Amino acid sequence: MTRRTPTIDRSRIRTQPARRRASKVKTLDEAxxxxxxxxxxxxxxxxxxxxxxxxxxxxxDAWVRAWQRxxxxxxxxxxxxxxxxxxxxxxxLLERGAIGGLMMNGAGCVHDLxxxxxxxxxxxxxxxLDEGRFGMARETAERLNGAIALGxxxxxxxxxxxxxxxxxxxxxFVSRSVLATAWRLDVPVTVHAAIGTDIHHMHPSADxxxxxxxxxxxxxxxxxxxxxxxxxxxxxVGSAVILPEVFLKALALARNLxxxxxxxxxxxxxxxxxxxxxVNVVExxxxxxxxxxxxxxxxxxxxxxxxxxxxxxxMVASSKPVRRRQKATIGKKKAAGRRRPGSPKS
Length: 346
Known about the structure:
The protein has helices at residues 40-46, 51-68, 79-83, 87-96, 106-118, 125-130, 138-153, 158-168, 178-185, 208-227, 242-256, 275-283, 299-318, 330-336; strands at residues 73-77, 101-105, 189-192, 233-237, 264-270, 290-296. It is α/β, with parallel strands linked by helices.
């Protein structure tokens, strides 16, 4: 700009009445103070009808609609969900019938097993790595690798194989295990392993062929689940790469085989927005109809809030209490999944 450039003449601007202008925010959309003693439903209704709060309520509504109409709710999650203490929330949702299928990565199995087996998990990676001890827990590796090998022999997927092992064990905390609960309730659970990503892969008991075969069975099972996802809901909680990639391939396979999979709602929940979940979960799968939602927040806050909202709204919409799934008796379920004579206990 030179010294001779004139300043802009603001006296010539064209104005318009403020009341005729389109506005994105209205007083009706503002938050309302929450009265002491209010419940979860009141809290959710008190949130502003804007941005993340509106998306949270939209995700809850979509989940409730799918549950009411017996449409699939496919709940995918990374290991962090287990590590931050949310397994009991998922178990409760499974028992209420709010989740029709589970999708997880291999690390989730490690933490689910350890919490069931000894009530604690998650080692200090940095110090253990320095000392050459990271991932060298003997019982964890033997249990997981044994269950996977036996599952391969019994033509099970990895999720069912590990769930069966935990359910049939004498572990003290079996009731809080997501995998054992899925096995008990006959809820399909698929585990998608990447060789070398999980601690039990390092141990001599690991059988690469068994890991690959059982996880591949789970991929085929997942594709069958995704084929029936029209008007349903898919949630990806905390997986930045593996589950978004696997879900997209399962969707591509289902559509190639003639299943349109339209009008679905996808929800990605994580601390930050990553590229693959944004495109492979939120954007691309919903191009044929439906809606993709991205919720940013800490799992230990966001997931319990969402679960409580889903349960309350379902109860209100159904005008009846949420019934628990019929639990299989331990004897009956164990008989159905009993190891073949002579098979070693994993």
